[in-house]
Specification:
Blueprint (H helix, E strand, L loop, with lengths): L2 H15 L29 H7 L1 E6 L7 E3 L2 E3 L1 H13 L2 E6 L3 H9 L5 E7 L8 E8 L4 E6 L3 H10 L4 H13 L4 E2 L18 H9 L5 H12 L6 E2 L11 H6 L10 H18 L6 H14 L1 H13 L7 H10 L3 H4 L11 H19 L6 H8 L5
Parallel strand pairs: 1-4, 1-5
Antiparallel strand pairs: 2-3, 5-7, 6-7, 8-9
Length: 387
């Protein structure tokens, strides 16, 4: 309970005591622990109370169709459907990822959650304290659930859900992931091979990479993978600009939102992020190996890479060798691995991240074989203190 909640509870108690009797009571000895919040621990929260609170809590498990984190953004078909339901109600949605099915049901029954957003088998669950409702799959006989006495919420979920919704959302996700759902105008991988010009942004790459001791041609290869050198590119997840920086990452890097699509600002911010990720993997002593870990983290998130490293180390593999870790990263799309107790961050589309790293490393090699010019001279003369 927040201090504000405690304060309001005491104030309300004081005001109530003034309504009838003339006798004034001394409240100086009343312990803080007796002050109640708006809704008591034993009170049931149904739709009316949920709307009043302005927040709905969903419990779920990690999974490709349920919920996962993509570059700091929530994804998954069932999550997206629940978010749409919350938007329809006009309330916030809070996500609580559980350990297993029993943990989900327990939190729901205890009132720590409002709706179980997971395709729960109806035949295998005989718990009389939950009510199946909302999103369902008739073929698999699975459905979401709420507490037994949440009749209004159950009715609202049943009235909202239509049989074709789940398939529509799955199709939307499939389209988003085909080509990563990026709106961009692709440029050629090499602008002018004879003159040694990879892109019109080479000078920015050189200047930014000189500050982080990173091969500018590697960053150029990464940029082509991210946006095909389109400064106006934007993905379905909200990643923006040449280096596809997420708004939350931009805020972390002190890059103003209005400059997300500015080529120079975007590249320099991405360089700072690469340097930050490089520092996170300082335990990978080989520079060549560490590049792969950094690129994978830029795409899939450092925490997911650490999960793969933990699995590799558990199985006696060298967790500082990318070839070993990459196998486990790919397996983190399988329930047997992303539900393992050693994994802290759940599901990831590991094959996408592996392809990302492999494509950049291959293109980097081709760029290194190009006799490039020296764009840094002109840039540094014009921008001697660019950061």
């Amino acid at each position: 309970m927040t201090l504000l909640g405690l304060y309001l509870g005491v104030v309300c108690s004081l005001l109530a005591s003034c309504g009838g009797a003339q006798e004034r009571k001394d409240y100086t000895d009343v312990p803080w622990c007796v002050v109640s919040d708006t809704i008591g621990l034993n009170e049931e929260i149904d739709l009316d109370e949920l709307l009043t609170n302005g927040e709905m809590i969903m419990v779920t498990l990690y999974g490709e169709d349920t919920y996962y984190d993509y570059k700091g953004r929530a994804a998954g078909c069932h999550y997206r459907l629940c978010q749409r339901f919350a938007d329809m109600l006009g309330v916030r949605l809070r996500i609580d990822v559980c350990r297993d099915t029993a943990d989900m049901i327990s939190k729901l029954i205890l009132g720590d959650a409002d709706v179980l957003v997971f395709p729960l088998p109806k035949q295998g669950c005989k718990n009389g304290k939950i009510r199946f409702c909302g999103t369902y799959d008739e073929k698999r006989s699975v459905q979401w659930a709420v507490r037994k006495n949440q009749q209004k919420l159950a009715d609202a979920l049943d009235g909202w859900f239509k049989p074709d919704m789940l398939q529509q959302v799955k199709e939307e996700e499939r389209q988003m992931w085909s080509g990563y759902g990026i709106r961009r105008r692709a440029a050629a991988p090499i602008m002018d091979k004879e003159r040694g010009v990879i892109s019109r942004y080479d000078a920015f790459f050189v200047a930014a990479c000189s500050e982080i001791r990173w091969d500018w041609r590697l960053m150029a290869a990464q940029c082509y993978q991210e946006s095909a050198f389109d400064p106006d590119a934007k993905s379905w997840a909200g990643a923006c600009g040449l280096m596809q920086i997420m708004p939350a990452t931009a805020e972390h890097l002190k890059l103003p939102q209005e400059r997300l699509f500015d080529p120079e600002s975007n590249i320099f911010a991405a360089a700072r992020f690469l340097a930050e990720l490089d520092g996170m993997f300082s335990d990978v002593s080989s520079r060549k190996e560490r590049i792969c870990f950094v690129l994978a983290s830029y795409n899939g998130g450092a925490l997911h890479i650490r999960d793969a490293m933990a699995l590799a180390e558990r199985d006696g593999k060298d967790c500082h060798v990318w070839e070993e870790v990459s196998r486990y990263l790919k397996m983190l799309s399988e329930p047997a691995y992303y539900n393992d107790s050693i994994v802290k961050n759940g599901y990831i589309r590991g094959s996408e991240t592996l392809n990302y790293v492999e494509s950049i490393m291959s293109r980097w090699q081709s760029y290194r074989n190009v006799r490039v010019g020296l764009p840094s001279v002109t840039y540094q003369q014009k921008h001697p203190r660019v950061r």
